[in-house]
Amino acid sequence: MYFDFRCQGCGEVFEEFVKPDVKTTTCPNCGNTTRRLISKPTIALSGTDPDFSTQYDHWERVQKQKVAKDKKFYADHGEDKPR
To answer: What predicted TM-score, i.e. pTM, was given to this entire model?
Structure first.
């Protein structure tokens, strides 16, 4: 399930796919500890949501977070790009 998290260091709010019992994770922006936020669940059934723009916005946000997480990983490990 997707849950919202807020970084305790930089304040970044992001969404991550985790198990329901996970309460903390690592910030993709700065690497500090985060806490899960209380938020309404997002349920999107393929082809049933008339508001496609909200699904696209969600997808776009998740993709940006993945890119930021990858950039941080490679920067931390002294590599510019994956092999």
So the answer is: 0.49
